[in-house]
Amino acid sequence: MILRVCALYPDLMNIYADRGNLLMLERRCAWRGIEWRLHESGLGEPLRDEHDLYYIGGGQDGDQRRCATDLLEHKAAALRAAAARGAVVLGVCGGYQLLGHSYELGAETIPGIGLLDVHTVRANGPRLIGNVAVQSIEGTIAGFENHGGRTELASGQEPLGRVLAGHGNDGHSGFEGARRANVIGTYVHGPLLPKNSWLCDLLTARALGVEPEALGPLEDSLERAAHAGALAAAGVKAAPEQAQSRPAAAGSRDAQIELRSEPPVPDGRASQPSFTVLRRHEQIELARRRLMQRGLAAGDQPLHPIQSPDPALRPDAIKSWDVELALDAIEATVARDEAVLDMGSICCAILPALHRLGYERLHGVDLDPRVLVMPFADAIGYSTQDMTATEFDDASFSAITSISALEHGLHSDALWREVARLLRPGGIFLFSTDYWPEKIDTAGTMLFDLPWTIFDAQEIRSLISDAAAHGLVPVGDPGPALLATEDRPVHFADREYTFLFGALTRTA
Ligand code: GLN
């Protein structure tokens, strides 16, 4: 086996010892008897699509500017072709920013090559500096960050992970980095790979096109200590199993990679990854199509695995946009062995989908006893309980979802008290609900034998402030989503409105 690595601008893009990433890749190849080829590509040099892993480190604004022009002129085509065939492209900090669409510095826009659907802006605020720890799907990443740029993900763009400590992409969204298939951008220096040897192995395996297990173990006590030290510096306690690579359930990652290599949905989706509002009905159809491709939506075939034998219990196809957003957020931030609760589970596709993705500790509550015969009821812990007063232990869940349930007569204080009790610190609550900025009257209308509210902007704001009183804070700024309303994409029960999706996280 040969690992062919190309280092882009190794003399300019290498601050905070990012060159250590190359050393780490090289050493681990040598220890395993994998042949190593390093090509260095600097300013003015053409680039060929013939490497397994392309690497670009962090840089100062001035150097970044010179590299950006060169990247577009001499290297973008080869990098795009390499990414499209599945080569690994790793960008750290300034390199990450260049993999996005652009880096704005005041009036100046430094263009990127757009392999990641992100934009970076150098705002007036302070630089985001310090030790950082990130929960990605496969494991915990620890290191150090120092950037002035704030990076915003487009709404279809998967983050690399959730910030456990530190600032991440922008200091407030709770997300760090971005990934699309094997293109990965992160703000984590450290350098990244020496402090996260499992990630070095994962990237090596992906670049070579083999399973990580095929690389075989190395004597990693020093590497583990470096990882634990970096986590401790960020103030995060390592769970013993988190110090190592944690491969996603077989198959699921591939399915996701396939999906991510599709072009992003071209529309005006809210760019905020946490709070967002449905703008066009077509977004529901697109989300449903993607879920179907991944085997995660209820199909039209009665024997489809997510299809309930009882037609009354079939997951509702209109709940696809929010189900996909919730699944994306969980996949990005919750490991397969962490517990997830769904509140108001009847007819909801979320738990069957998570089961198919390999999540092992799933619970769903609903007052309707037919929830007990939902698909995969043998593997998912469904129970008939009041979601505002469940029997689960405190801090039992890393994520709680509630798809289209809040609008049916919930008492907000009781709900938030229970959500705050059940989530572990740092856990997330993901919800969707019926929404229109101005009041649409539904008084006296019953749906599914339950009262019905279409929340207006003021009501959502007060829901959010009630939640804050229980230590549940919004992920990102909900403001823009609450205003964005060109269209009324949902028509139901003689009303025209939209859906709002939001995320809250439990503070410690
Ligand atoms: N110049 C960029 C910023 O400050 C990247 C810095 C870095 O690579 N550390 O945002």
Please provide a written account of the structure.
- The protein has 508 residues and is of the alpha/beta class.
- The protein has two domains: 258 residues, Rossmann fold (3-Layer(aba) Sandwich), CATH 3.40.50; 241 residues, 3-Layer(aba) Sandwich (Rossmann fold).
- 28% of the residues lie in helices and 26% in strands.
- It is built from 13 helices and 25 strands.
- Strands 15, 16, 17, 18, 19, 20, 23, 24 and 25 form a nine-stranded mixed sheet that branches. It has a six-stranded mixed sheet with strand order 2-1-3-4-14-13, sandwiched between helices.
- Helix 1 crosses helix 5 and helix 8 packs across helix 9.
- The longest helix is centred in the first third of the chain and has 24 residues.
- It is globular.
- About 7% of the residues have low confidence.
- The protein binds glutamine (GLN).
- The site of glutamine has 12 residues, from helix 2 and strand 9.
- Outline the low-pLDDT stretches: 240-273
Strand content: 25-35%
What is the averaged pLDDT score? 87
The CATH C-level class name of the largest domain: Alpha Beta
Question: Main beta sheet, described?
Answer: 9 strands, mixed
User: How many helices does DSSP assign?
Assistant: 13
CATH architecture of the largest domain: 3-Layer(aba) Sandwich
The name of the CATH topology of the largest domain is Rossmann fold
Q: Which ligands accompany this protein?
A: glutamine
CATH superfamily caption of the largest domain:
Class I glutamine amidotransferase (GATase) domain
Helix/strand/pairing category: alpha/beta
- N→C terminal distance: 47 Å
Q: How many separate domains?
A: 2
Coarse morphology: globular
Helix percentage: 25-40%
**Number of DSSP-assigned strands:** 25
